[in-house]
Amino acid sequence: MVPDDLYCDLFLVGRALQQIGQFFLLYSLKPRIVVKVGSSLLVNEDDLTIRYAFLHGLMADIAKLRREGADVVLTSSGAAAVGLSMMNVEPGKASLQDKQGAAACGQPLLLHAYKQVALEFGVDIAQVLLTSDDMENRRRYLNTKNTIERLIDNDILPIINENDTVTTEEIRVGDNDRLAARIAQMIQAQDFVMLTSIDGLYDKAPSDPEASFVPEVEDVSGYIEATTGVSSLGSGGMLTKMQAANMAQNAGVTTWIGEGILEAPISTILSGERRATKCIANGDPQSAFRLWMTDRLTMAGSLTVTKEAADKIRENSCGVRTADLVTVAGEFAKGDVLHVYDEEGTEVARGLTNFDAAQTLMIARHDEDQVAELLGFKTTGDVINLNNLVVLEERHLTWDAPCEEDDQIVQVDLAS
């Protein structure tokens, strides 16, 4: 068993190395672009076949950007959509199992199409299939980063998709927008381009005659209520694009949301030749380690602390102590990132837990000198150490606290 102090030291060393890597990449002369393409652009809605005309234009533009010196990473949806016809299921009637089967059928078809078109432009491709677990587990996250970096170094275009064949409703990322934003954070991209079926963000539903186009966004939270609805083939909508843009902004990445046209869909947005919504990057991006902790795809678990403790946490004067816990929610493991709330349900911080859920329940409401006796090994009384805790700022989109009625949440009241 790794001692707690060594466990924390290893993360601190990892954080320092990530910051050094971020510094060199930010000042690299070679720009990095992450492109996200949705199912509605890649697949014909009527017959669920691949739209080769769009695919050809997309790959021609990627090849052009690569020739001009940019590193490009493509995040692509479409596998489940193109595989639905083989499963004889209509998109609106597909169950989770149908979608998993459809993804298994569609993945080789989609990658074969990408391979065929990429060869016309002399581009080598590689597929990277990911689940939310790969993004939330620190070790697997870094392994994924190393793989993508290695592909880029060898001039191979990584094509990334959520692994829909094995994900479930409980663990799936849910949309490739936020997965793509995670990748943009991971590789310290300069630009993140989300291609969609409309030309950008509107302040109301685009079908509303009074809707106005939004050319530039600093704070995405002001547009959350206006971003409802999803396409018939995809699992994301403008809401997930705003969430993804917020994640990219926190990493100092400029986000572009624009229409996926046939000719030069990416470069015409980046050059300003046609209109798109630009989400301005924050001028003081967080470190890679803090980004990994704050921008989550799923919630592993959560803690509620007393008002006094929440105030101290906001002041960055203490971590999350066992004696301050009010409730514990979720079945989390040691090393997971937990969401921390005050007693009014406002999210205060996110941080790396020193204990699993069972251990946390055992030691909750006990003083530090009792913790070692209860657990049977020497440790501190902090569930989350101060140096592994990130207080949320206004720039972050917060998550609602878990509800007791939610059968996916295991919550125990410790206040009594």
UniProtKB/TrEMBL annotation:
Stated family: Belongs to the glutamate 5-kinase family.
Location in the cell reads: Cytoplasm
**Group of enzyme by EC:** transferase
- PROSITE patterns per UniProt: GLUTAMATE_5_KINASE (PS00902), PUA (PS50890)
Q: Name one GO cellular component term.
A: cytosol
**Alphabetical keyword list:** Amino-acid biosynthesis, ATP-binding, Cytoplasm, Kinase, Nucleotide-binding, Proline biosynthesis, Transferase
Q: Where is the PUA domain positioned along the sequence?
A: 301-384
- Annotated residues that bind substrate are located at 77, 164, 176
**Pathway, per record:** Amino-acid biosynthesis; L-proline biosynthesis; L-glutamate 5-semialdehyde from L-glutamate: step 1/2
State the reactions this protein catalyses: L-glutamate + ATP = L-glutamyl 5-phosphate + ADP
Could you tell me the EC number(s) of this protein?
2.7.2.11
Name the major location: cytoplasm
HAMAP family per the UniProt record, alphabetical = ProB
One Pfam annotation reads PUA
Q: What is this protein called?
A: Glutamate 5-kinase
- Record CDD domains: AAK_G5K_ProB, PUA_G5K
